[in-house]
Write a structure and sequence with these properties.
With 177 residues, this protein is α+β, with helices and mostly antiparallel strands. It is built from four helices and nine strands, in the order ββαββββαβββαα.
Length: 177
């Protein structure tokens, strides 16, 4: 099986090529990604704990799902695909915003992503893919914020950045379903 490729972009999110995913993370090249936040009617966010065998950030808590878009795939198509692959359900998604971040990891890899953040709503329990997800839970944004402050090492780099920079935006959209 051919290694998954990521879409390389400039700071304006214009495609400039593709590269194997691991190579992009080894070279810290800017590429397109997405993060999905699924919320319920109680205002809680569904978090996932990444599987133990993930190549970076294993067993850390993060947003409902995240990954990389494929060539020819819209952000929303990619988010829905990965939500099904990781969490075993589908729901409508809405793109909220995007931002660029760079986060080096202890294993020598670096995430340098233009991350498209999406939100969706769901009331049920997921059917997690154990290859991707170790565990899951619902938490309110305030509980997440408090837990990140108490145990920042338990969360992924991008999730902490999203919460730090865009907490108010997420709260506003949680209430606006």
């Amino acid at each position: 099986m051919e290694e998954e490729r990521v879409i390389l972009v400039n700071q304006k999110d214009e495609e400039i090529g593709t590269m194997p995913k691991m190579e992009a993370h080894e070279k810290a090249v800017l590429h397109r990604a997405f993060s999905v936040f699924v919320m319920n009617s109680k205002g809680e966010t569904m978090l996932q704990q990444r599987a133990a065998k993930k190549y970076h950030s294993p067993l850390l808590w993060t947003n409902t799902c995240c990954s990389h878009q494929r060539l020819g795939e819209t952000n929303l198509q990619a988010g829905k695909r990965r939500l099904q692959e990781e969490m075993g359900f589908q729901t409508e998604l809405k793109e909220l915003f995007s931002f660029i971040y760079k986060a080096p990891f202890d294993n020598g890899l670096t995430e340098h992503e233009l991350d498209h953040v999406m939100v969706g709503y769901y009331e049920g329990d997921p059917e997690i893919n154990p290859e991707e997800v170790e565990a899951w839970k619902w938490m309110t944004p305030d509980a997440i914020r408090n837990d990140i402050q108490a145990s920042p090492e338990s969360y992924t780099a991008w999730f902490k950045i999203i919460f730090e920079r865009f907490y108010d935006h997420l709260i506003k959209n949680t209430l606006q379903k």
